[in-house]
Amino acid sequence: MASSAASGSTISTQIAHIAKRLLEEEGGSVPVQRIAVRAESILDIESTDVASITVDTADEISTTQTDDGQTLVTDVGTISEPEPDPITEAFEGKAVFFDLDPIPSELAPIIADLGYHSLEDLAARSPAEFKTEINNHLDVAAPDAHLEQISLVTGSIADSLTNAGYTSFHDLATADADALSGVHTTLTEAKAEKIITTANNQALTVTDEEAKQIVHSAEMELPVGDTLAQKALQSYKDDLDGSGSGAASITQIERTEQTVGDPKALTSGEAPEDHQYVSDIGANDSDPVACGLQVLDDEHHPQVPKAETHPDAGPGALPVDENGDVVAPAVPVEPELQVPVDELVAKALHDHTALRLIGPRGSGKNYLLKYIHHQTNRAYVSIDVDAATTPEDLFGPLTPDENGVIKPRNAAVKQTLINGGTVVLNEFPVMQAGAAIALHRYFNEGSLLIKAHGELIEPHPAARVVITMNPPTVEYRDSEPMNAATRGRFLTYQVPYIQSVEQEVDTLDQQVNSPRTIVDRDTLTKIVKFAHATRDESSYPTLSTRNLTLLCKNIDYGATPKAAVKNELRAVSEPNQSHEATYDELNRYL
């Protein structure tokens, strides 16, 4: 039913406010008809009148005509009058915690009685603590119930339940089916589960998921600026020098001569199968697979990837979830081999086999490698190469020492192989042929011949080399096909975008919503489903998992989900790709 906006505000100004709100929501131009429909539900005015006022009399509104005659609002200038309350409420709702969608109306006063009087109060509580507190209160307040109201509960079963301490629907709703089935001879586990389900529908109780939704909804309603300020200051504190001022940190990779740790099985005398990488993520989540890659014993080596909570963590540290565990990658299944990619990579890294990973941008190639190296305490050095990369860049130049004697100086690749780390060469095919061929002996025999240095190097036994590349398709014009002589030296795995929507949502949820909620799971699911649609249609700009984490930042900064998605689409689009068709597809999801 329509409601009247503030009497002191003109109709054209009210429409301008609605148009501005919709521009923010949509992240671009908005059809006049859409503004008309929204205005009709808020103002005492017909939609046809809205369209007329928008085009003819609203001075603040800029419009344009499409080729098919549709009128689009492209911009709204400065509006002289403040936004009326009915419009604010229509787009934002009232910012009080008991109006949050996940909170049932009958639960709101109980939450207030427990001392939660603001969004800040509720957001400061962990979901687990909130669930325990609210359910304990509900348990005390729950009235005695006539358990026989549940169809499966006969008189004798009701007596047995009461004698066992189950006196209310709340007691039954929070019971364990196995324990419940033991209180009466005719009460099977299947019956117990049905009783619990029925009681849960009749009792007022909060589940783990409901508690999480309630607390996270409160977090999402809080102004983000204060949180960003706290985060920025903490990040700065992490980089203070000894005097208490901010400072850069410079690591000379070629001068990092600390070797990696030895295998734990070697130093502990235990069996090698006791200290190996186990693939327990992705498709192997329910049935973990041992992969043979040995865990080393020095987790503090400076080049072992660190969790962001580690004292020595720097830029590029691995994110952690709300439990402090490193967020696992979203692991796809290798298309031809039908084996999870992390399992294949870990098995390939158990020896010196040259490994090549091919995947589109943002598919998680490097994150997967960093995760495996973190889990096994292995040094990881990632190097982006290009057409100007020379053997000297990889292995080091000849330079005079303090006495003027010409000597070789080690570069990153050579020093990392000596130290026992893994060198990851990104976009390997674009590198000069001479630089690539200089590595052929290592790929073939595991030794490194550096002619300019006059050295034949047998690398540390833990040393590995991995190359990554994008597929040589139109979308990746700079990713040249490798010549056959080089291509045939690698064990090659495809790393496609994650095929499971649910798995990608799980990964994003952990990466984006820790330690606080930024995007609710329902919205994340819609965004991921749309991203999958872009990956299946070549005429659409493609959104990778990495793009999704970036657009969630803009949601955190105040953009609507749809506007954030549109912004990222523009950032990644190719000249031949259609924005309008992609936006039409987006409207199906958001």
Automatic annotation (TrEMBL):
Region described as Disordered: 238-278
Superkingdom of this protein's organism: Archaea
Q: Which GO terms describe its molecular function?
A: ATP binding; ATP hydrolysis activity
Where does the ATPase dynein-related AAA domain lie?
357-490
| Pfam hit, one | AAA_5
Classification via PANTHER family: MAGNESIUM-CHELATASE SUBUNIT CHLD, MOXR FAMILY PROTEIN
Protein name per its UniProtKB record = Nitric oxide reductase NorQ protein
